[in-house]
Backbone:
């Protein structure tokens, strides 16, 4: 009995330190036990994975570096736009999916660098206003440059990954279209590697410099840290990760869609997810996105469909739809977490210690 208890304790301790292995293993095995992953459910969860990637990029800026960014969705949209421009058949620049992703991420990272360069001396509200303004500029450009962006209709159809590629007689492009599990696994694998990348960056010299700049820029400068370069690196990496998420999103739905989806509301929603999960916490970011966007994308449609069937048996019209209350529910969740768990649901040790010290 003691040996069993000791082994269980060791496993739980190991799982806590290496949480990503059991979590991603369960997610990888889930489609084998539920056939719904081949259809709508797989597509819904894939959307949550993609937003997790974008949120990890935002966490680099807000959580690690302490820079308030209100325009992360604009980089999400830019990454998808560049992918569409480079892959749609009507465009003479048509190239394959993987080269298009690499080029799109590189261009998005360069735009993030250009945005960060003139704002390096700004912090707090001033930086937030600049990133908010940039996001609105991008959204308006998407709407008005119809010859380039497709306007409100978006660009499409965007070829799926593996378009025109046959492996042992299997058309990979067709498989991505008819079976959601292909995009599910593609997004899951990319999310896994992004998590590993952010973990490596967090523990690296650059990651420690991010934290130092967040805590006290003047003190960081006195020990030889270039505050400008550190902040600029956060801008660049956050933009690149968000652009990668945008590429996956556009590839999965086959079009860039309505530009309003990349506006201020989406940026704030991703920021709320990071705050609810825990600033500076990688698992916290994933938990926050899963709760906030998982509820919005997966739970609400299922609950509304069930309630419509139930109400149609009793009333002639539907009296209540949970989806119409989604923003109110998000606001309530944010208020409750900030009141009873200000460090977030899964806070980083450093952030929790800092908040505890400031309260003493």
Residues:
């Amino acid at each position: 009995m003691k040996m069993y208890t000791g082994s269980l304790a060791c496993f739980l301790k190991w799982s806590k330190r290496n949480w990503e292995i059991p979590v991603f293993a369960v997610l990888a095995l889930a489609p084998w036990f539920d056939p719904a992953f081949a259809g709508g459910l797989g597509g819904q969860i894939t959307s949550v994975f993609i937003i997790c990637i974008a949120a990890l990029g935002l966490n680099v800026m807000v959580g690690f570096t302490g820079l308030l960014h209100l325009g992360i969705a604009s980089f999400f949209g830019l990454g998808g736009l560049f992918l569409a421009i480079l892959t749609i058949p009507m465009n003479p620049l048509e190239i394959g999916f993987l080269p298009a992703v690499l080029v799109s991420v590189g261009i998005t990272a360069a735009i993030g660098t250009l945005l960060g360069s003139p704002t390096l001396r700004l912090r707090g509200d001033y930086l937030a206003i600049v990133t908010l303004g940039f996001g609105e500029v991008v959204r308006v450009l998407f709407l008005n440059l119809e010859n380039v962006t497709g306007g409100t209709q978006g660009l499409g159809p965007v070829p799926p990954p593996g378009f025109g590629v046959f492996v042992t007689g299997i058309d990979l492009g067709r498989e991505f279209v008819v079976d959601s599990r292909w995009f599910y696994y593609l997004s899951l694998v990319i999310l896994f590697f992004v998590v590993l990348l952010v973990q490596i960056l967090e523990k690296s010299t650059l990651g420690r410099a991010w934290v130092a700049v967040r805590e006290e820029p003047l003190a960081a400068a006195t020990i030889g840290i270039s505050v400008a370069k550190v902040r600029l690196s956060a801008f660049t990496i956050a933009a690149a990760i968000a652009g990668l998420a945008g590429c996956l999103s556009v590839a999965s739905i086959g079009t860039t869609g309505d530009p309003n989806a990349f506006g201020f509301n989406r940026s704030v929603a991703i920021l709320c997810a990071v705050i609810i999960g825990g600033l500076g916490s990688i698992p916290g970011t994933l938990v926050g996105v899963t709760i906030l966007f998982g509820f919005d994308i997966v739970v609400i449609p299922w609950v509304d469909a069930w309630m419509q069937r139930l109400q149609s048996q009793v009333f002639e019209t539907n009296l209540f739809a949970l989806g119409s209350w989604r923003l109110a529910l998000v606001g309530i969740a944010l208020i409750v977490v900030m009141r009873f768990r200000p460090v977030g649901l899964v806070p980083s040790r450093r952030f929790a210690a800092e908040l505890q010290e400031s309260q003493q």
Q: What stands out?
A: Residues 282-312 form the longest helix (31 residues). The chain has a mean pLDDT of 83. The beta strands are 166-167, 170-171. The radius of gyration is 22 Å.
